[in-house]
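I hope you will forgive my troubling you with a question about protein structure. Here, with my thanks, is the record as I have it:
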Amino acid sequence: MNAPVRAHALPPRDIVLVLLIVVAWSVNILTSALALRELPPFLFTALRFALLAVPLLPFVRRPPPGQWPRLLAVCLCVGVLHFGLSFTALKLAGDLSSPAIVMQSYVPMTTVLAWWWLGERFGWRTGAAIALSFAGVLVLGFDPLVLDRPASLLLMLGAAMFLAVGTVLMKPLRGIDVRSQQGWMALISLLPLLAISAWWEPGGFAALADASWVAWFGAAFAAYVASLLGHGLYYVLVQRHPVAQVTPWLLLSPMLAVGLGITFWGDRPGPRLWLGGAMVLGGVLVIALRALARSRTAVPATDL
């Protein structure tokens, strides 16, 4: 007999884990922004992955036959282009708030790409939420703080798009566990990032030699706290609960990042940024809640 699987509320233990992820990812925006005052973005990204590769190297396993092309594409989209462009946007931005919010546009982008490439379907409510999120980016873009540095907004949108592409490409990957996938991403991304830095960021390696503890701390925090701890805990949670049940909680991360920007970076968001940010995050929340509703009713379980 088949019965629908009902997603239960997160227990207190897992809520604590979610909050640890939220803190790790939001603080990472602040520590990375501080490090980027001294290091160019692609070199900073390479340093992050070099540090991350060390503890993950023993867990790297050869992918199953036929998985190499997809794995390489995921690593280039996410490891090189997403992270490289997002750190470039963060360096160019005059604030922490707008990059943290705009990055969330990868959620509606992923939904649209999954519909286009994978044939996944969504209803009119999800479609309206996607439109709301994209409209929110437009509203946010007219805030004076963002208008002053439009390249940052465009680069962050590009970074979100490459994350969405990588997420869709990642879905059919088989036979690669989380630690091995993270390890391969660090190893595969390293050389392209160093090559781009050598070509695009003259003087970057000299800056690395003169970098203070703040820059090294930012890279170590990004590698070990944001990636190793944050993403590790995330995959623990999605093994216990539907992804759609965890996603709404993660919207606390950009909200906390906005608070950190106001408190420690001197951000002064204007009304357009507040309104546009609310539209973006509101649309993402609706998408997540609609996905959660589908996970509660559409997944059959078989009584053995």
User: Anything to note?
Assistant: Residues 1-6, 298-304 have pLDDT under 50 and may be disordered. The radius of gyration is 19 Å. The first strand starts at residue 2 and ends at 4.
